[in-house]
Amino acid sequence: MHMPSEIEDDIKLHIDTVMQNAQRAFALYRQLPGRQRCAFLYRIAEELELQRDRLVEQAHRETFLSPTRLQSEIGRTTRQLKMFGDLIAEGSWVEAAIDTAENQAAPASVDIRKMQVPLGPVIVFGASNFPFAFSTAGGDTASALAAGATVVIKGHPAHPETSRLVFEAIKTALEATNMPAHTVQHVATGGNHGGKLLVVHPYTKAVAFTGSQQVGLTLLAYARERIDPIPIFAEMGSVNPVVFYPDALTRHARQLATQYAQSITMGVGQFCTNPGLLMGIQGQALQNFLLVLGMEMGRTAPQKMLHTGIAHHYATRVKEIVARPEITVLTPTPPLPAAEGEGVPVLASIEAADFLQHTLFTHEIFGPFSLVVICQSAAQLQQVLQHAGGQLTTTMVATDSDITFFAETIAFQQTVSGRVILNQAPTGVEVCASMVHGGPYPATTDARFTSVGTSAIKRWVRPVCYQNFKDSMLPDALKNSNPLGILRLVNNQYTREGGLPVQAVPPASLHTDAH
């Protein structure tokens, strides 16, 4: 049903006011020293800890996620905030580079300095499956604020009150640390129309999204409609292929089946790193593994999913898949109707030749479902991996013998995802500097970046080069004395030392290569 024009006008006016506020705040916030922004991020973490029990109780009511899981997620959220705070307090993340003028050269060179600067206001769309770690005060918000960007949060409708309570904690931190008004704002109205207006607004400079491929591509299309296209950093799901190599299955079939039954059904399969695609080479070892895996998953009781809409979508997609003639269901009984809002664990299999005929089987089914692709050779394994497309993770379950014998396939596995795993289940994402939570399309819209770990800050910045500037005009990160004490690349040597000479080159003596 079309929205009445007067409501559309009200939403547009509201979004415009929000974005004007974000732009005004950005002019002030971007100039704050890293240590001040660090104090702000730490204070948000403190406020979340103070409200921990209330937040967990509310999120449990809205999402059916267990209190234990939610307690852990709040811990991850506060660690992320502090991690980015520490990063910007130290300061070397700006990648300062300095090439001083050499007036004795013929012709004389120029003084050139470079660093990363924030893009501008960032829109963060909250995720349904992580009400804390990937939503209002999650990694996208933390990394954008660390970069010096202002943030407008589009709260997820699956947990609106949780999002509001988290934003209240952020507001308290804003006031307590004297941050510019409207550094962070929260939009809970407007629905899909409001989301589009946020993306296309001229003051918006980047967008973060975690969710379905359909919505991610819609946001990408909105960005391309703009006069000035902006980056959309969308994580759009993944089937996270796991390749079980023959010797590993021969030696550890039962142990692996237990491990992967737990991984597939953990959190009712509502993780972006859920192993939704398993594959191996036809043989007795694979059959033994699948027999135990199907039984273990069949013993796992259905549980409540995030909300009834997700549960309904899961049930519909599973029914569509298992009705296909190419599919064999491996769980002991066919998927039965679950109680309202529950997800039934399902394991199914398909021959590789049939899998390669359609893209239908490559799509993520969000829930406790996994599809096993039975291959006839290592070459066919590689074909299946390529057909599955870009992923967040890919896992190899292999012994030393497998690693030697299947070296070519294992090498190919390392080209299809952002994170490659050996002999561990992919479920779960460690928050650390070396983590990559991203991957080639269609897992994300830009495989060069991660949404987890300190490198996530690079999504919200761009490099700026300062040529022939007076020292007093330069940002502190580029000044001769290095007042921040950060690590810088000076004349191709990394150093924390300051005291560089200032020798501005007159414009008449400039020499540049044509470009």
TrEMBL record:
Q: Does the keyword Secreted apply?
A: no
Which residue numbers delimit the Aldehyde dehydrogenase domain?
14-428
- Its name, as the record gives it, is NADP-dependent aldehyde dehydrogenase
**Keywords of this entry:** Oxidoreductase
Q: Which organism is it from?
A: Chitinophaga costaii
Q: Which Pfam families match?
A: Aldedh (PF00171)
Lineage: superkingdom: Bacteria
> By its UniProt entry, which InterPro entries does this protein fall under?
Ald_DH/histidinol_DH (IPR016161), Ald_DH_N (IPR016162), Aldehyde_DH_dom (IPR015590), Aldehyde_DH_Superfamily (IPR050740), ALDH_KGSADH (IPR044151)
Query: What Gene3D superfamilies does the annotation carry?
Result: Aldehyde Dehydrogenase, Chain A, domain 1 (3.40.605.10)
Organism taxonomic ancestry: Bacteria, Pseudomonadati, Bacteroidota, Chitinophagia, Chitinophagales
Keyword check for Oxidoreductase: yes
Q: Which GO molecular function annotation, any one, does this entry have?
A: oxidoreductase activity, acting on the aldehyde or oxo group of donors, NAD or NADP as acceptor
